[in-house]
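job 3f2a | input accepted
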Amino acid sequence: MAYVQHLSVRVPWHDSGWGGTVCEDPLGNSSCILLKKVGEDRDDILEAAHAGQRFEVLGAEPACLAERGGFLSPRRHVVTRKHPYGHTDALRAVSDTLVDVPPFSVHGIPFYWLNRENAVEVAEEQRIVGFSEGAEDFAVGKLGFRPNWLLHGDNQRAVIEAFFENVRSEQSLVFFYLKHSPFEAQPRRMLVGAACVDALTLPGQWNGSDRTAFPNHMWETIVRHTLRPDGTGGILLPVQELERLAAQGRDVSVALAVAPERNREFSYATEHVSPDVAVAALLELKRAAQAASELGCSVAERSRQWLDRQLGMAWRRRGPAPGLPAVLGRLGFEHPVFTARVLASVVSEGEDPWPVLQQALEGAGGPAEFRRLVSGTSRGIWQHVDEGRRQALRLLSRFDLTRDQLDRVLDRKTGIELTDEELLDNPYDLVNCTVDDGEPILLRNRRPGLLSRPRARRTLSAAGDRAPGRPLGPETGRGRPRHCAAARRG
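job 3f2a | predicted structure (490 res):
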């Protein structure tokens, strides 16, 4: 089963719906200017003179275009990019370059991945083909200083291609979110809508790059999406209607959709969204849409139907083992995220990949494309893992955990220590015994691991493996297990 990567994209607040027009009240939009680019570049006089009109009549690019302020525009638009180091001797030949954004599209930039320091961390998890430290050092030497961002164009391209590698047309979801809005009760990140990815266009080089000592790659990948203003192909919450109600004194907080952050899924402008977080985000959009309707703000029925379809598909694409990257990292695999996706690709949809992993670790065969990724180091670690810990690892692979969360549980560094035996007896202890931690494992993001389809729930009992001690359902875990409760009383 091919891995399907979902995305998040940040957009600025717009008082009339991101349709390719200036705000109805530009000067009243004090939310968009909290984004640095908009705050620095917005021309208040020009926009106030053309309030509510199409971007094209301005005669200049509105500042919000650079922040994807026209993601629902039915017309193409152009964003002019200026190289941040174009003033240096090394890059003086680079000139302003236009980014052509088609209708119903955004330009996505994976800022976290392109940060020099973060790229080292990313490369430990992902396989980035074509990345060269030597090329980076050469470019830095020519520039004369070491910037915070990756500099050599070949490295930039390698990172961007790796980021978008598993984004698939008509399968990947893209979630649109706000960092700032006019709502007093706004959560840290607020979902405003979602769609499917329709197509991708990777960026090319800067104008004039052929006249510099090293290549210079642009960062803006065009992401075409399926959402339309009538609600076809996605969902857009009626946040502008809700804002008007809030301005009249109504409490609309129940209809604001909280972005279900676990790590950095809704940060850095464009990011990956994990399978479990995608399910949680769809559920939150569904909840908020219902709450908005009850407040008198309509949500198209076709959008509700789209949500239901996508929930079913997102659940299937999640697979039975979204926590494999963390488990593989624990077992000493290089590039565990990449390795997990290779492993998922060699089994059928819904099939537990654990038997294939175990077979390869024990040198007993398996698909060649996965076997070649198993090192002597990983086999050595596996040999020293006892059967109870192996079963705990298998169980934890069913939960969308980060490597840090997995290590805290297995190394017994949670608020209440949790043994492998206790975890296998009641997987909900994973939540209950971290509830008082500084970073608890949240129930809403763990529940899918326990409520999977019957086929997935049977995986631990196959071939004599141990299954959880009792059935688990939506109501299970409301109270704390006895040993957790006893530990707190003590």
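job 3f2a | The CA atoms of residues 84 and 91 lie 10 Å apart.
job 3f2a | closed
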